[in-house]
Amino acid sequence: MGKTPFRPDQNGFAFINRWHFQAEESAEIRQSMLRPATEQGLRLAKPQQNSMFGLNSLFQSGIDAQVKSWLNTQVPDGYGLCGGMAFAAADHFIAGKPLPRGLHENDHPTNDTPYGKALRSYLWDRQRDSLAGNASTLLGWMAMLHFDIAGLGGADWLLERTREEFAELKRYIDSGKPWPICLVGTSMSPFDNHQVLCYGYDDNGDGTSMIYLYDMNCPGREHITRLDMRGKQLEAQESCPGPHRGPLRAFFCNNYTPEPPPALRA
Asked: Which residues make Cβ contacts (< 8 Å) with residue 195, sequence separation at least 6?
């Protein structure tokens, strides 16, 4: 068992991850996800997992067009800034700074005041960072789930990667750092997947475990996801499930670099 002192009702935002964007903002979100996939290609593994890189050329040659078609769909109304909120909460906790969390679920920062505009801009910047560093992995893993080329992919492939990511996540938690993770479901839309902040775990040693999450879709309280990695695919029971994402089939530790939080004046 490992758990940091992070508490969602103190160190997470009070407002819910529900935002309404202008057309140009939706286009920016789409491009923020498309750009890394176009420039970097689909990422099937992290640099330390070199054995997977041999699959990239075979895998990517047949499905790039399909993956890009996923990104040409409309960004859903009410789409969130989950990555930005997870990164920002981690930034403040690691820096030992109080989070400008707001007062209640609907107390979103807006562009109507200098303070609100600065906070919203900060969350946008961190959202961009979360997509720039992780969209290629998300899209690669989605493609491996939905396009099992030559028997190399599928839910069992994601399960094996998730076991590796869980070991990495435990190392972050044991070092005292909450860590952003990306949750990958069965939806064919990348916009249905989700980023959260993990701050603790229980490992039963038998292929079952629990992770403790700040989930900005259900703010203000601790959330637990129970994991079962004993079968051929990940099975999960979530206290804050994603209705559009579908069953959780994988998660990975985000590429995340803590940044000093900006000084915001009310």
From this structure: 82, 83, 86, 130, 134, 180, 181, 182, 183, 254
Q: 212 by DSSP, 3-state: which? A: strand
Which residues partner with 180 through β-bridges? 197
Q: Other CB atoms closer than 10 Å to residue 36's CB: what's the count?
A: 21
Q: Where are the chain's structural domains?
A: 2-45+53-104+111-253
Provide the β-strand partners of residue 178: none
Write the burial class of residue 103 (CB in 10 Å: 0-12 exposed, 13-18 middle, 19+ buried): exposed
Q: Report the predicted TM-score, pTM, of the whole model to 2 decimal places.
A: 0.91
105: amino acid identity, one letter: E
Q: Which amino acid is at 17?
A: N
**Among 10-24, 85-99, 160-174, which stretch is predicted with the lowest mean pLDDT?**
10-24
